[in-house]
Every structure is written in structure tokens, then in C-alpha cells.
Predict the structure.
Amino acid sequence: SSNSGGASGNSDAPKGKIIGFDFPFTTIAVYGNLKKFAEERAKERGYEMRYTNDNGDLAKQTSGVSAWVAQQLPAIVAFPLEPTAMESIGKRAREQGQIFVSYSVQLKNSDGAVLFPGVDSGKVLGKNASDFVNQKLDGKAKVLILGNDSLDVGKQRNQGLMSVFPQAAPGAKIVSTQNATTRAEGLSITSQVLSANPDVNVVLGYDDDVALGAYQAFLQHGIAPDAPNVYIGSQDGTQESLQTVAKNGIYRCTVAVRIRDIGHAIVDVPADLLEKKATAPKVASIAPVAITAGSPELADYLSDYTR
Amino acid sequence: MLQVSNAMKRYGGVQALGGVTLDVAEGTVHALLGHNGAGKSTLIRALSGATTLDEGRIELDGDVLQLESPRSAIAAGIATIHQNLSLVGALTVAENIFLGNEKRRGLFVRRGQQRDQAAETLSQLGLDGIHNRRVATLSMGTQQLVEIAKALERHSPRVLILDEPTAALTHGEVEKLFEQVAALRARGLHIIYVTHRLAEIEQIADHVTVLKNGEVVLSQPTANLHRDDVFRAIAPGRSTSGGAGVAHAVNGPAEAHSAAASQAGARPSGGLEVRRLDGHGLRGVDLQVKAGEIVGLYGPLGSGGSAILDILAGARRNWAGEIALGGNVYAPRSPSDALRKGVALVPSDRRSRALFAGMTMSENVLIAKAQRVSRAWLRSTRRERQAFDRVAADVNLIPRDPRAVAGLLSGGNQQKCVLARWLVISEELRVLLLDEPTQGIDVGARAEIYSLLRRAARDEGMAVLVNSSDVEEVVAIADRAYVIVDGAITGTVAAADLTEAQLLNLANQ
Amino acid sequence: MNRPAPATRGRSKLLSALVGSALLIGVVVMLIGFSVASPLFLTPNNLRQILLEGSVLALVAAPLTILVLMGMIDLSVGSMLGVGGVVAGELMVRFHVNPLLAVLVAVAVGVLIGLANGTLVGFLRWSPIVVTLGMLTALRGVAQVIAPQTPNGFPAGFGSLGAGYVLGIPAPLFFGAGAFVVAAVFLYRTPWGRHAYAIGVNREAAFLSGVAVRRLPMIAFAVTGGAAALGGVLDAARLDAAPGGTLGVGFELTVLTAVLLGGVAFEGGRGTLFGAVLGVLFLVILQNGLTLLNVQNYYQDIANGLALVVAAALNFAAERQGTAGGLTALLDLVRDRQVRPAAPQAENTPIPAEDGLVTK
Amino acid sequence: MNRPAPATRGRSKLLSALVGSALLIGVVVMLIGFSVASPLFLTPNNLRQILLEGSVLALVAAPLTILVLMGMIDLSVGSMLGVGGVVAGELMVRFHVNPLLAVLVAVAVGVLIGLANGTLVGFLRWSPIVVTLGMLTALRGVAQVIAPQTPNGFPAGFGSLGAGYVLGIPAPLFFGAGAFVVAAVFLYRTPWGRHAYAIGVNREAAFLSGVAVRRLPMIAFAVTGGAAALGGVLDAARLDAAPGGTLGVGFELTVLTAVLLGGVAFEGGRGTLFGAVLGVLFLVILQNGLTLLNVQNYYQDIANGLALVVAAALNFAAERQGTAGGLTALLDLVRDRQVRPAAPQAENTPIPAEDGLVTK
Ligand SMILES: Nc1ncnc2c1ncn2[C@@H]1O[C@H](COP(=O)(O)OP(=O)(O)OP(=O)(O)O)[C@@H](O)[C@H]1O
Ligand SMILES: Nc1ncnc2c1ncn2[C@@H]1O[C@H](COP(=O)(O)OP(=O)(O)OP(=O)(O)O)[C@@H](O)[C@H]1O
Ligand SMILES: [Mg+2]
Ligand SMILES: [Mg+2]
């Protein structure tokens, strides 16, 4: 069932049941979770998964995905570090008859997409955070934003966040906006900001890792894990963050797209396209949900990990 | 009695030691001689634990010694002063003397005690007040004596090995060294003494062994030995009275050369004239070298001879004074600038300042020439090969293989390579500067180098300036000589009075 | 003087050829192994892909090899890649400059930065590693200051520079291969090539021999800067975007890895361009093949790392020429005995006593 | 011997003290500047925070300084940090091992890895930079293989190792400061300290003097490995998590930056522990102050990078001791003239001709 050597062109589209999933942030927590669900669904449908080793490195991502194109993998799902950078690769893949699905963003050159747009995620967090500030903090707060503007997702999430939060919580003062990429950086920067500004009480993280670091920083600065006037919120919905949110403490919210659903969509979208299921949607759009301790979804989301 | 029996050591394709047997009696000085690469240093490295023999046995008073590291050799009572000094420039004299052998209390160094004891040992050697100086700031001679102090501070040494200790010493320092060696002999040490200077044998050695290609070719008490026998053992087939240079090298002062033969000068106008040169420790140096003439510059190490040569070659800047080359103002900005103007330097300290050890013989020889025989920026292999073959034959490089790795050649051949680097572009050169040109070079090669220099002056009309701290050498090679002490010229010796005594006299005024 | 000739270059060549071959053998073994393991590997498309991946690496590895041979190093290339891409990108997107002009300006900027490195390191003789590590960090900031928003959507012609094919050959390969050809001609066919080696082996001796010990490194830094900027332009063209924060991040270590893998000594004076080419190929083939075999990224890291450690062993064996010869050099290394001391290297290293190995 | 003494230890001390002070002055200027710019800076809390940030850096910088002084380098520390944290984390979380035991095992693993580095580099004498660059990559893979899922939620007592305070002092600081005290005693009070310098200046001479030229670097590598693993444990304790993929990523460059900033020569043989401490402080204060002032990270990069370039200039000035003296050394550098040739340094460095500077 394997394809012939150097075949190319639509007439001889690559066959086989292999899906390549390219996720550039190989070191972040959500990756492991995603892979787990993707594998689960792939097994159900009789597919084999392939992965790249991008290490967050644009050059490696480009080369890894290009290699799949050259090697004519039947289907590719890619999460572009730089969306424009992926267009030409997607174009080539499609010319060869490969299925090319984009992840997280919509590309011009793709057969389908698994979407949970970063802008929306940021907006949801901004809404949830501003509600907390307005309801529980009398509209006043000192805010630290942990962003990551060297990444496109980071920029998008931040853009969404900033399009909502400042207007919705006019009394909140943004004390500091910093770049953080890892849990350790989240911890270190939050600690430093806290020792200088002990009254910072809201942290908005662009992903769960940096927020978990920030959470740790608050605990270490002697703030009770359930201090009523503190809000830490982030985006991703990883297992550890969900667990922390479930404690009903200062880590109040993670804006989650259900990792299980994404993991499954990573397989379903390209598989449906490969199997030419006309009725199946070409775009799986997964809406971000703000998960808090009181969210009805919390238990479901968490149970995904314990099966 | 220190006994070495059947010592064998191979380095890749080279049999450095091919079964050497050597007996050194207690309370004697045993001289070890031989051409460059004969295996002297290898034997000594084996005795000092720096290398292990492939085969052979080393016994001290009947006990077989296991010398697997310098540490074990030191513990066995063997103190060694290596050819390349084993001092660490950045540390103080006291720290060096006790390096690897520190006085300590518990885990900690007793620096006060080290300083006091170092000061005491040093003052026995006539060196006062230097124990806190950094070794890098001392002259070579002083460093050599510090090495001796270091050797003496080792656990009660029974064997003292000196590998070419006088190569870089001044006359006075040599005398001082010999006094110490004699005193140590009297204390009953076994002393092995390596040298290329035959004259020293009579002065200090009780027994002579000559190595050739890793084998003993002569071993006799000094008493009934003639210098010529030793010379023949080292460099067979070369007559000791043949070339004038050889005679001088071996027999020391002889009649001075006839006046400079500048008539051969084919060059436009060579001569170099230096006036009131200051800077780098120099104090108003005046000197002159005419085309076709070999001028010697004699002075104890650190007197400034090297500074003059470096300045003339463009290697040091920030001097004051006037220099004229062929009548024109000459102020080299860099060695390449000096070369363009026809001035080339063979620096002292070949390994660190002249040789490209990891590169081939032809790359070493043609480093400046390649550009000159290139065509439209591209190298011409054929013309390079021709140039190499010609000069290799001229200076008698051995092996005459352009691809031989320079670092593996004998010292003499290395020096000939460096000299050939300039001889191969001799048509562009007007002045050749040489700094300690035969340091550490065997008598045979030394004679060859002298005759090459003489040819450069006589046949090619170059102005040749040789800086040397070896009186014998100055007398052997120079037509005329200056004596420099402490950065100032203290005298000029014309051809007629060019004798060792005269030079030493001027140096000690 | 009739004793056996000392080890000649011939032997050293044999050994270095053998060590070169160890890498070559490695590359061939990988090619065979991956072909057997996956039918997708040995396809024209995939091979072209591999060459494409190696192109920018080769483009920068070529001048960098010359720098390393001179005993220098340029760690700032990663960020220069970023700056080059960003400058060209901004010019085209924000200022609507003609693509060709934009590329030329970007390369000129790279050359200027290289000249700055060259002045500080080659001329003023500040420490290469400290200066260029500093430049690496500083220029990454500069790239992001120049373009806080990623410029993208370049004119069509520009894209073909990075992703186009000429006669079926990926366009960037012309630059990568071209760089190696030029570097090879420079290094082996001009006198300055020997000078570069001479500077690496013994700078002082080179200086006293009239070699341009300041100008040559300076030029090499400038060329490296230009090549890195051009590399950034090609990457940007391929990506159709020039993200200042990520373009070329980590590239300095990848290219250094390739050069060191290829047997070029970090201290200078030893190594060949051919080795560096093999180093580049080794890296890109390994990465391509492991991705194909779906080896987990962790194990890819381990394989890459171990390759470098093995390279260190091979280089060491090459250095110790006097060995019995051939592959026994490696056996000796393993047997931990018998290894003869090396030929003397750069003056600055005293002839190594063989204390390094013999345990006895 | 009655000629004027060339540059003596005294003068070199003065100069290196002055260069040390240049950094010290830099640190003081920053302290003043940041205090003026922000009232939040000079608070006990923030100062404590700065010290906490510097602790792990100091813990590893101390043994690394000794390695660099010996002419060695260990680039694998970043990944060893990761491995140390992950090993301790997995032991506690997955195998419910007692925290103290887990820490001990993690440090032991670090020591073993260090010994492996030490064997390859110190004993077999393979190239330090190539070997440890390889280990850096390989060990990052290993850390992730050990713990594909981030272990977190450690026993309470363990956390205080990274985040606890003893007498108001952050716990990690005891390790960081302790490491420097031990290293200082080793370097300046024991014979082996002199040996370390001797190896860095002239390995051959040290060997011939009976110095343990293989064992000493090996031990230093082992200690560096242990320290890095302990650093990883402290970081994990502080984070309450040990992410194998990110813990310690890039740390090797940060710690090397600190050491080089502190004036320790990359080639070995020159530098002080005091300098390295200042380097660490400089880095953490700069980062803290810029974060506090909410300076964009781009400019933080630029500042960090330029600091290194300035450090290169200062180190160079320190090397050229024979200079007119004092801060004029720097003026001379700028005026590009007048610089006297340096006093001869290490035997291995030929007396530098001043070709590097004078243009006339
Ligand atoms: N480390 C080494 N590697 C390879 N060959 C070596 C090494 N050391 C010495 N040799 C070779 O062994 C031979 C003997 O060298 P050795 O240094 O013992 O000679 P020597 O008698 O001391 O000469 P010189 O008078 O020049 O000091 C030479 O051919 C030399 O090239
Ligand atoms: N780098 C330096 N810095 C300061 N002074 C120096 C330096 N180098 C040499 N000098 C001084 O210059 C003078 C001459 O030193 P030089 O090295 O030229 O002696 P020398 O010429 O080597 O002796 P010889 O003629 O025997 O070779 C000495 O007084 C020395 O102290
Ligand atoms: Mg010798
Ligand atoms: Mg001299």
C-alpha cells in the first residue's frame, strides 16, 4: 500500500494511511496531551501518525514539513510558527496531491483546517479576567501580562486579549508587559515584578506554562493559594492547569479548547479528506471556553486525561 | 649508579631510541650529545616520566624504577630541567619553584614558608629579591636558574638532568650555572647534561655519550677524548677543518675573517644605518650594516638585541630615532612593509615565532614566495615546486620532501626551512636580520647555516645582521661586531680584533 | 642524516582522508540505512529536499570554515541571518523597494556588521568568542527592533529565490554550492588560502612572515556577515516572511556543529572544506531520515549529540598522526594504549606528551 | 639584571583590579541608575529577589570558572540542569522516593555525567567544545526521554529548597554563595588552585612539574556536573515542576556570558572568581532593572549583548598590562595609539607584536 518512488502530480496522489502532525512547540506541556488524543483516534481509524522535531525553531519546522512534502506523506497537519511561511509549502503539497491541513490558523493553501483562533482565545480570557476585576475587585487591579511576541500565536492571543481587557476593565492598570516563553521564565519574571510591586494581583498569561510559573511565584511570595483578590488566567487547557484551576484558588481560569477534541480533529479532518467523505466538514472549528473552578465543562475536560 | 639499559622508543615511523644503554656514576657529570633528533630529549623525557619507553629498563642503585609520570620520577629522586622550560609564566617564582610540590598544612598552601624557602634557595644561586616576581618578567637566564632552584627543591634529588640548559644563557650565567653543577656533583648527584656546545664538555663533563639516530655511537670518559672525535661522532663525513664555519663552530675563536667582501653586491644599494634608536629599552643605538657584510650584535640576553631586530623588521613600533635603508628614510610599519622594502627577519624562538609546525615543509618555505609566483591570483603548483626544489637543494633540506611536516623535522632542518623562506625570495631582499640563528642547533647544521649566511652576504650582496648571545657564534660568523648591554652599544669590534675575549671584555665593562 | 624520513604530509593526508572517510562512511551508511528503512527516502524529490535544506547551511559554513581555520569564530551568524532577512523584508514590504535592491542592501548590511566584528576581533584583537557572542544577543534585539511585526507577502519574483527551481535544482543550492566552490578556490588555489592556514597555525609567525594577519580575518568576517545576511534573505524568500524573533535562532550552533563535525579544529589551523561539506550533509541527512522514520524528537537530539562526540574522537585520532595507520588509529583509541604522540601542532601547543592516553 | 623591571605582578594586579572595577563600577552605576529610575528597585524584597535569581547561576558559574581557567569549557551544563531536575522530579513523583534521597541521586547523576565529560575531555583529551556541545544536545534528549510528561507537585519540604527562606535569606543563595566560597578557597588557598592556573597557562609545563593534568580537570568536570544537576534540582523545587524540555535551556550561554563578562579568559589561565561573581551580579541586576522599568525585551537583548562586547574590550585591556596604566588603558584603546607591547604572558602566547593596534 505504499506509494511508488518519485511519483508526483495529481494523477498519482500518494496513498497510504499516514498522517504527519507537525507541532512546533515540542517542549510545551500541551503537546504530550495532544499526541495522546491524536494517537487514540488514529488507532481507531487505522492510521499511523508521524511527528516532527521542531523545537520551536522556524528553520527546523520548515525543513521538517518540507521533508514530508518531498517524501509524499499522504496527509499533513501543520501548526505554522509563521503562517505566511507555510503557504508555499502547502501549495507544493497540494500540487502533489497531498492533503494539507493547517492547525490553529487558516491558510490560503490548505485543504482543511483545525481552528481555535488565537485571537478568540485571547478575547475569552480578556472577558473572563475583566469580569473578575469588575465584580470581585471593584474594578481596580494591577496587572502583569506575560506575552510572547516572538511567536505568531503569542501575538494573536495578545491581540485578542488587548482588544477586550483594557476597555472592559478600565480601572485595571497594566503595570508590566513582559515576554516569557517557559515556566521558569514565568516564575522568574513574576517573582521579580512581585518583589518590586507587591500589589500586582492579576496575571494574564499567553499560555499555561508561563501562568503555572506565575502561580508558583505568588505562592512563594506568601500569597495564599486561595487569596480572594488575586487572579491568574491563561490559555491552553492543559491537564496541570485544569487541575490547578479545579483547586478553586488564585489560578482562576484557563481558556481551553478541549484538547481531546483537537487531538481527534487532527486525525479526523485529514482522514475524512483522504477518504473523500464529502459530508464531513473541512474545517474543524473548536471554540475556546473559559474554564474556571465552577465551569460545568471542567470535569469533562479533566476526565479526558484520566481515561 | 643510574643505569639505562636497552631503551627503545618509537614515534610512528621514527625510531627515536633504538636500544640505548647508559651508565651514570654517582658524583659525575655525564654529557649527552648528538645531532638534532638523535634522541637525547626522548631519553630524558623517559627518565623524567614524561613519556614511557616501549622497551628497556631504568635502574637507580640496582632498584628498577617505574617511571610512569613526572610525579613518579620526581618521587624517585629524578629532577629534570627540560629543553623547553617547564615554568608557568603567570605564576610567581616561588609558586613555580613549588609547583606540584607545594608546602602545605592540611589542605592549604603555606605560602609564607614557600616564599621564605624559595628566597633562601634562590640566594644560594645568587638570585636575590625575585621570589615574588612573575616568571614571565624574568630573562631567560634567570628563568633557567629558577628551574634549577625548582629542581633542588624536589624531594632530595639523586639525579639531575639538564637538557641544553646553556642554549639561552649569557656567558656569565653559564659560569654561574657550572659552579652550581659542580657543587651538586660534589654532593654526589648523578648528573646528565645535554648540550650542543662541544666546548662545554671539557669544562664540565666527566663522561661523554654520543647518540646517533637513537643509538649510542660513542661513550667514553672525557679525559682521553679529543673534541674532533666527538665532532666526527656527531656529524660524520664532515671534515672538521673543511669549511671555515665548521672550524669556528667547533674550535672556537680563530683568525678573524678578512674584511667585508662588499664588492659582490649586485643589489642597488643595501646598507642599513641606524641612528639614536630609542624605545623598547633601547638607549640611543647607532649601528651600521653595509651590503655584503655580516655584522654581529653581541649582548647578554635581554640587552636589547632582539628589540633592534624587531624594530628593523617592522615587528615593533613606537620607537624614536632615524633609520636609513640604502640612503633613504626607512620606517617600517609592519613586517610586510619591511619585506616590501627588502628587509627580512629570522626571529629567535623558532617554534613560537617562525615555524608553522603543523604545515608542510614547502608551505613553510614558500609562505612569502607563493604570492610571487602566482598567476592572476591563482597559485602555480609547478612554479612553486620549482622554487622549492631549487632552494631545498641550496640549503640542503632533509628530507627533500615538500610534504614533510615541519614540526617533525630536526631543529636544524626547521631552522634551515625558516632561512630558506627568505633565501627563496633573496632577489628582493637587501637586509637579512637573524636573531639567535643557531640556538639549539647541532654542530653540523650550525656549520651549514653559517655557510649559507656567508653566501647570502658574499654572493648576493645582502647586508646581514646577526644578534647572538653566544660569543663563539659571533666570532665564527661576523665580519664586524657591536656589543650591546642594557640597550646601549658599549663598543664596536673591527674584524681584526674579533675575539671572544674582546667581546666579553666589552660586555662586562 | 640518513635516518628514516619523519612522518610526511602523505601519511597525514592518508589519515585525515581516512577520518574524512569515517564521516563519508557515516554519510553513506546513513543513505543506505534510510533507503532500506523507508521507500520514501531515496526519491528524487526527497534528495532535492535534502540539498535544499543544506543550502543556507553550506552558504554560511563555507566562509565560517575559513574563519575557524584562522583560529577565529563567529557566533553572531544566527542573528545576522535574522537581520538580513528582516532588512530585505522591511525594505520590500514597507518601503516597496525593488527586490533586487533590497537583497543587495541586506547583504551590504551583513557585510558591514561583519566588518564591525572583523574590526573588533581581527584588527583590535578582542576575544572572538566574547565579541561575537555579544553580537549574537545584541543583533537579535536589533532584528526585532527593525521589524516588530513580521514583514510578509513579498513580491513574487523574490520568493523564487528561496523556493524556486532552476533546471530542477533548488535555487538556494546555487548559492550554497557556489560559496563552497569560491571558498575552495580561495583556500587551495590562491596564496591567501595558505595564509589563512598559517594564521591559524601560528599567528605570530605569520605576522613576521609578512602575512596580512589583520586584513585577512577582517575580510573573512565581512564575507561571513554577507553570506549570513544572504542566507537570511534566502530563508525569508523561502518562508515568504521574515520573522525577526525567530529567523536564524540557533543557526549559529547548527552551523558550528556542521563545521566541527567536519573535522575542522576549533583552535584553527586544521581541517578542510571538504570535511565541512560532509558535516553539513551529515546533519541534514540525519535530520531528514529520522523525521522520515518518525523517530521521536528526543532520540533525534541524542543522535545529533552523539554524532558530535564521535566527531571529537575522530578529530583527535586525526591529530595524532603518528599512529600505526589507517583505522587502527581508532582501535588504538579504544584500546587506550599504544597511541603515539601527535605530530606537533600549532606552536602554542607544546608537543603533546602522550600522557593523555597511556594509562599503564 | 639591573635594568628596569618590566611589568611586575603589582602592576598587573593593579590593572586587573581596575578592570575588575570597571565591571564593579558598571554594577554600581546600574544600582544607582535603577534606584533613581524606579523607587521599587532598591527595596529589600527586590534585592533579595535579585540574589535569588543569581543563585543557581552562581552555583554553576563557580566550578565553571575553574574549568575555564584550566582552558576547558563545559557547554553541556544547560542540559545537565534539565537532567538533574527531571531525575529528582521523577524519583519523587513517580517512585515516591524521599526528597533528600532524590536530590542526592540527581546530584550523583550529574557527577557521573560530569565524569563522562571529564574522561573524554580531561583524560582522553578530545576537544572540550565539540564534546560538550554534543553532550548538550544529547542530554536534552535524555532529559525528555526520562520524563516525557513534566513531573510536578513535589513534597512540601522539597519546595522550600528552591523557594524557602532561612534567616530571611533565600535558600538557593546558600548554595550559590557556598559554591563561590568553596571555589575561592580551592583556587586561592590550596595547591590545586595554583595547579588549575598552571594547567590553563601551560599544560605541558604543569605536566612536567608533576601536576595532575588529567585528574584535576576530570574532578572539575565532575563537580561542574554535580553543581549543574543541583542547580536543576533547585530550579525544579522553585518551579514545583521539572519540565525536561525547557528546564535549563539556554543556561549554558547565560552562565558562560557571566563568566566571560567577569573577565575570565576563554583560553584559560587568566581571570578571577571575584570577576565571575561580578559577572553574575551584572547580568541579574541588568535583567531585573530592565524588567522593572518595563523595557521591551528587544532592548534587553541589545543591552546584554553590548555588555559582552564592552567586556571583551576590558579583558583585552587587562591582557595588555604594559600599558601606561589605569584607565588610560581604555583611553589608549580608543585613541588607537601608544599601546606598548604587552609584557610576555603565558609562555604559549608569543609576545604580541602590537600590530593589533597601532596604525600610526
Ligand atoms: N612527540 C613526538 N612525536 C613524534 N615524533 C617525535 C616526538 N618527539 C620526538 N620525536 C622524534 O623522535 C626523534 C628524536 O627526537 P628528540 O627530541 O629526542 O631529539 P634530540 O636529540 O633531543 O634533538 P635536539 O637536539 O633537536 O633537541 C626525532 O626524529 C623526533 O622527530
Ligand atoms: N614587551 C615588553 N614590554 C616592556 N619592555 C620590554 C618588552 N620586551 C622587551 N622589553 C625590554 O626591552 C629590552 C630589550 O629586550 P629584548 O627582548 O629585546 O632583549 P633581547 O634583545 O632579546 O636580548 P638578546 O639580544 O639577547 O636576544 C629589555 O630591557 C626588556 O625589559
Ligand atoms: Mg632535544
Ligand atoms: Mg632575544
